[in-house]
Write a structure and sequence with these properties.
Blueprint: E1 3-4, E2 14-16, E3 19-24, E4 27-32, H1 43-59, H2 63-71, H3 79-90, E5 92-93, E6 100-101, E7 119-123, E8 128-132, E9 146-152, E10 160-168, E11 173-177, E12 186-194, E13 205-211
Antiparallel strand pairs: 1-4, 2-3, 3-4, 5-6, 7-8, 8-11, 9-10, 9-12, 12-13
Helix pairs in contact: 1-3
């Protein structure tokens, strides 16, 4: 239990010895540093930690965009934590230690704009992802909402690419040029809309995955 000491002067915070000092609402609190448990983890705890660890590693590189989109609808929570909870609850398949993520069940971004509903295929002619849809401007959708692509490539060290496509809701079609480093690799793509003022977002859509051919003469090293 934390205690408030009136005699503590100044903005003391952090760990000092075996005590942890914090400042809340202008008041200073101190409590004992929690002791590390010496009990070995149970099998259930090991499995739970493995699941959460895998999901956290998956979304970690895009935490900024997840937090940014979610902050527009709920400033009390971090979007990355909401995504981790959703994936952990809905999208983990397999048995320990061979867990996998069912990407089709993953929801990443959140927001109030209408989500993209479209068809996507790979165009060898353009070395690009080809998109098409019917424009329907209704509540919380605008002609100049821009389509943003989040591309996940498991075989790349950096894993994620965030692409501003220059494609807008009113276009009804578009091409997302594929960077050459994605040649001969499997990719998973999530798409969402961002408003012109960059202050509103949609929930994302997962159109599917593709194994890309060699692009522009570049192969994997």
């Amino acid at each position: 239990m934390a205690k408030y000491y009136k005699g503590v002067i100044g903005p003391i915070s952090g760990k000092v010895g075996d005590k942890v000092y914090t400042i809340r609402n202008g008041q200073a609190y101190v409590q004992s540093k929690p002791k590390r448990s010496t009990k070995p983890p149970t099998t259930a705890q090991i499995i739970q930690r493995a699941r959460f660890g895998m999901v956290a590693q998956f979304v970690g590189p895009i935490r900024n965009i997840l937090n940014q989109t979610y902050s527009k609808i709920n400033r009390k929570k971090e979007g990355v934590n909401v995504a981790i909870q959703q994936i952990h609850a809905d999208a983990i398949i397999g048995e320990y230690p061979d867990f996998e993520i069912d990407f089709a069940k993953v929801t990443l971004t959140r927001g109030r704009l209408s989500a993209p509903i479209l068809e996507m295929s790979y165009s060898e002619e353009h070395c690009a992802l080809q998109l098409s849809w019917s424009t329907k401007i209704d509540f919380n959708s605008f002609h100049d909402d821009e389509l943003i692509a989040m591309i996940y490539c498991p075989s790349l060290p950096e894993k994620w690419m965030i692409l501003e496509t220059g494609i807008y809701r009113a276009d009804e079609k578009g091409l997302i040029k594929i960077p050459a480093e994605l040649s001969n690799r499997e990719i998973h793509t999530w798409l969402f809309y961002r408003s012109r003022m960059q202050d509103s977002y949609s929930q994302c859509n997962y159109p599917g995955n593709f194994y890309l051919p060699q692009i522009d003469g570049h192969g994997n090293e």
